[in-house]
Design a protein that fits this description.
Largest sheet: 4 strands, antiparallel
CATH architecture of the largest domain: Up-down Bundle
Strand order of the largest sheet: 2-3-5-6
Distance between the termini: 37 Å
CATH class of the largest domain: Mainly Alpha
Strand content: 5-15%
CATH topology of the largest domain: Outer membrane efflux proteins (OEP)
Oligomer: single chain
Helix content: 55-70%
Radius of gyration: 38 Å
Number of domains: 2
Number of helices: 9
Shape: elongated
Length: 467
């Protein structure tokens, strides 16, 4: 499945993460400095473009807000209930405890001894390990949020690569169009001399000149396609000011072993163990299981311990102390609603994990088939078609200059060469996209130069947020 970026909104299949906005500087800790207005276009490699994306795009930062919320929930879940301190003034009246015969009020007849004072302290004690279960549940939720973040990185990295290789294909087509224009200019110049010398007919020269004009029109279209691809890449990078200065390296990426040589089932098992979206769903199912246990533990009442001191002038004992225990009795309501809700949520999370397993299997099967097909086509071009196209063009051109063949055969050979080269570039881009789609479906980063830095930056970023 291909993911496309439209304007500033990108919708990906990331069920628990809504990726909106663009990335903040230093998200991944990479360092790549480009001049604000370079005199010459900056030639960027694939790695540099991806690093720039991590620096400048806010989508991943927005996805990380769920991690912040999950970490905040961990703090809430681990909190011990605060004690309660209460102060009461009792026996309030105009002249409280007047004429009291109590020992605490023996100051004489018609003396106001004051109201009673009560100072109390209470503490809720959670029973049946409820606090521990909440802590475990919230910790799992944080891990799931981190898996979602990794899944966002997995998906958005390929969005950047799509834009990068889209620009590379546009550049390749532009260079081919420019080469053909230059080639036709030389042919037209030579044939104009031949026309003056009477070696060719006027209609034949006009046909060649028309092909030269068509080649120039194709070059203009290719230039427009490059500008559009530059704008698309600049949009992904959140750098609109740099779009006209973007030039990408013209080297095709190295195809490394990521598991494409494995049997299909072995590759599926590898993906099931690595895909962060599946890991996130499994973690959410584990969290739902903890929540169900917690819901069942609600039937065990918590205990509130209380104690305090009292000063009562009307009492025979001026100062007294007291202690008590209160326990709610689940007589009428036994938390069936919470239990049923947690049970239903567990079923939903388990079903979501199973659905994601099916999606992973389908992704791997589809991307592996696309890779194998695209790889075969590119090898066919490199093994036979490209060499034959060059030979036919050169031999036909030589034969035409010798007068052996007519102008129509010559033009047809030129068109065939252009068609083969354009098809080859398209096949190469499809092969590259299929390769990275396969890596994405497995859950691996194929670029070994980028992978360790990416993982280190992700971990560093997560640890900073935890602080």
């Amino acid at each position: 499945m291909r993911y496309q970026f439209h304007g500033s909104n990108f919708l990906c299949r990331c069920k628990k993460v809504v990726i909106t906005g663009l990335l903040a500087a230093s998200l991944m800790g990479f360092s790549l400095i480009l001049p604000a207005a370079p005199e010459k276009p900056a030639v960027l490699t694939e790695n540099q473009v991806i690093q720039l994306f991590y620096q400048r795009n806010l989508d991943l930062l927005a996805a990380r807000y769920s991690i912040d919320r999950a970490q905040a929930q961990e703090i809430i879940a681990s909190a011990i209930p605060n004690p309660t301190i209460s102060v009461q003034i009792a026996e309030l009246s105009k002249n409280p405890n007047i004429n009291s015969a109590a020992l605490g009020c023996s100051k004489g007849r018609n003396v106001n001894c004051g109201p009673a004072e009560i100072y109390a302290f209470s503490q809720l004690i959670e029973m049946a390990g409820k606090r521990g279960l909440r802590m475990q549940s919230s910790a799992i939720a944080t891990q799931a949020a981190e898996s979602d973040f990794r899944d966002a990185v997995r998906i958005l990295t390929n969005v950047v690569r799509d834009a990068f290789f889209g620009l590379l294909q546009a550049q390749k087509n532009h260079w081919l169009a420019k080469e053909i224009v230059t080639h036709y200019q030389a042919i037209v110049r030579d044939n104009r001399l031949r026309l003056k010398a009477g070696e060719i007919r006027g209609p034949d020269f006009l046909r060649i000149n028309m092909e030269s004009l068509k080649a120039q029109a194709d070059l203009d279209n290719a230039e427009a396609a490059v500008e559009q691809a530059q704008g698309n890449l600049a949009m992904v990078l959140n750098w609109p000011d740099i779009n006209m200065q973007l030039v990408v390296d013209d080297k095709w990426p190295e195809i490394r072993e990521i598991g494409q040589s494995l049997a299909r089932e072995a590759l599926i098992e590898k993906a099931l163990s690595l895909r962060p979206d599946l890991q996130g769903d499994k973690l959410r199912a584990d969290q739902a299981d903890k929540d169900l246990i917690l819901a069942n533990r609600l039937k065990y009442p918590d205990v509130t311990l209380s104690g305090g001191v009292a000063r009562d002038p009307s009492n025979t004992v001026l100062h007294t102390g007291f202690a008590g225990v209160s326990i709610p009795v689940p007589l009428f309501y036994q938390y069936k609603g919470e239990i049923n809700k947690a049970s239903a949520n567990l079923g939903q999370m388990q079903l979501a994990a199973e659905e994601t397993k099916l999606i992973v299997r389908n992704d791997v099967v589809a991307s592996l088939a696309a890779w194998r097909s695209a790889d075969k086509i590119v090898k066919l071009y490199e093994r036979e078609l490209m060499q034959q196209a060059h030979q036919v063009r050169d031999r036909t051109e030589l034969a035409y200059t010798k007068g052996v063949i007519g102008v129509l055969e010559f033009i047809d050979a030129q068109r065939s060469y252009k068609s083969v080269m354009l098809d080859y570039y398209t096949a190469m881009i499809k092969r590259i996209n299929a390769y990275y789609d396969l890596a994405k479906s497995i859950g691996v980063e194929p670029n070994t130069d980028l992978s360790p830095h990416m993982e280190e930056s992700i971990k560093s970023n997560l640890s900073i947020r935890k602080k």
